[in-house]
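Next comes one such specimen:
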Amino acid sequence: MDVSFLGGPRPQRGVGVVAPFDFALDRELWRWVPDEVSLHLTRTPYVPVEVSLDLARLVSEHETLHDAVRTLTAVEPEVVAYACTSGSFVGGIAGERAMCAAMTLAGALPSVTTSGALLEALTELGVRRVALVTPYTVSVTRALEEYVAQAGVTVTGCAYMGLTRHIWKVPYRDVADMARKAVRGGAEALFISCTNLPTYDVIPQLEAELRIPVISANQATMWAALRRLGTRAVGPYQALIDPAARLGPALPDVPGLPDVPRLPDEEQQQEGST
């Protein structure tokens, strides 16, 4: 759970504020960042609460966000991104917008959140029916479903892990297994929630297997923040970032995941046009 800043010409500079337990961010956020942008991360104060709706409310308090933004003004960012899914959807769409306003007020710069970036990504891809994968408990997962529904998007299927800690240790194989359970009922895309869940390398493989765009929390956050700078995120074979990947090409295997059959070129084109 975190706040990220990106920005500035000569070169563009970036900063992030990350809660102590979101270790996945340190491992992969930078992988979406192009060379001309630097990413800076810091931690919000530790909160001794397990992953829950209570924790989501605590880490999204405006005073906490304000202090985080203010401590990073020396970096002179051009955009700030709060990278926590549950913390940015727990208050619904109105709450997410209020968080952006609070961050902008603190730093006088554009602001995005992970959950706001999710809705922006769904709009970009023309998605009205989405499947969800979360590492959360049922109550936190239901709050995400309600948030998505507020935006007029139908949740076609959902799979959750019921975790309250150590989310960053979940292996790719488990993420892939949950994705297969969630994608049903004509889903047009899959969203993998939680910025503490590693996803960078699993996205291309799942898109190749499921034949729909796969959006993750960290991916959407970086995509939306970099978009504010007029800069494209780095993510080969990821439909949100690479328009060519929206045709659903078969891709090389990702270590740790089962083989995915390749499709002939003609069949690939037919799959991509449906």
Remarks:
- The two ends are 36 Å apart (CA to CA).
- Residues 2-273 form a domain with the Rossmann fold fold (CATH 3.40.50.12500).
- The first strand starts at residue 2 and ends at 6.
- The chain has a mean pLDDT of 83.
